Amino acid sequence: MSTATQRAPDVPAQPASARHTRAPRKRRARTRGDVPGAMLLIAPLAIFMAVFFITPIVSLMTRAVWDPVVAVAFPQTAHALAGWREGTPPADAYAAVARDIVEADAAGTLGEAASRLNQDASGMRALMLRTRRHLDELAMNGTPLATPADAKRELIATDPRWGDANTWNVLSRAVRPLTAAYLLRAVDHRSAADGSIVAMSADEGAYVPILARTFWISLIVTAIVVALGYPLTYWLAQLPERRQRRVLMAVLIPFWTSILVRICAWMVVLPREGLVNKIGMSMHLFDSPLALLYNRTGVIISMVHILIPFMVLPLFAVMRGIPSTYQRAAISLGSHPFGAFWRVYVPQTAPGVAAGALLVFISALGYYIAPALLGGAGDQMLSYYVAYFTNTSINWGLAAALSLLLLVATALLFGVYRLLAAWRPGAGREV
Known about the structure:
GO cellular component, one term: plasma membrane
CATH superfamily of one domain: MetI-like
Shape: elongated
Organism: Caballeronia cordobensis (Burkholderia cordobensis)
Family: Belongs to the binding-protein-dependent transport system permease family. CysTW subfamily.
Structural class: mainly alpha
Radius of gyration: 34 Å
CATH topology of one domain: MetI-like fold
Protein name: Binding-protein-dependent transport systems inner membrane component
Subcellular location: Cell membrane
Mean pLDDT: 84
Distance between the termini: 67 Å
CATH architecture of one domain: Orthogonal Bundle
């Protein structure tokens, strides 16, 4: 028999499913093999972000609940009050606080600790400084505090508040580094002398209204940016490609300019004798100059100007991918041009509108320079007070608490947005 007529040995045929799944398995294996290489590529960026971005933020946020100032200045008092719960403390606590006041003054930490105590209860700073002067007088007169009973008697003689349990309650809470005082103050509450949480008066705390003002200004700015950015981006998406590049460059040039320079330019344009009022009055649009500077109007104008690119760019990326044939097809089927635009085109741009609006809103929440330079006293946003407590009054704990408040409020808002974005009418119904 010739080799041409010889039959090859029978080989069992492989199932079709095995042949079809072999290639995807190989691709998955190659993909898994590429994971370590990809991790090595992003490792420098991840390390940089962890060291220079995440770590400083976490370190700042811990200041909102961790304040060891009083604990460092009054270590013996903290030890003496460790087991005390109610009533006046034992005489040993009086002797410990007297020694701590003298030693803290010598170390230069008494003033800071007294200021920290004064945040919890008004008058604590004066009490500490008065006690320190009395202890100096006793030392100069040669009458040291020989026993704890002597210390208790002299402190109460210096100020009757040393015999009040509320004074010791304040001191007992302050010598514990873990504290909720700053977080409570950020939401306009405080701990009373007896340990209960009470709301501050309108004169003492105003951070919750400031947070509401911050969200309100950001919401107004976002609405105006969407109203102006959508038609601008729609017109930009309909232009020929060469003109698109030119208009997009005109939008981006202000984006590349320093924010401080742009705000200073508005300080020249918006005054009563500025360009806007001169043009408006020359065209008889109004009879007297408008107040556009050092109020909320100037803040909103400058923020809208700064944040429009944040709306145009993501929206343009969505609009340029929508074929114009969809609208023409709807019109050819009998739809009105506006109906075709509203029911066919606009729903497809919703992801770009949502992304741009969220980006603008979150960016507006943290604005500091525009309200500080163009706004009045009632137009400052929460970031202004964070900067104030960080740079001026050096109250890092309250600055961290306000930052945490703004971060949590923004995160909750973002969570609500995600829930609304995931919701669909009719979801969960059986079709």
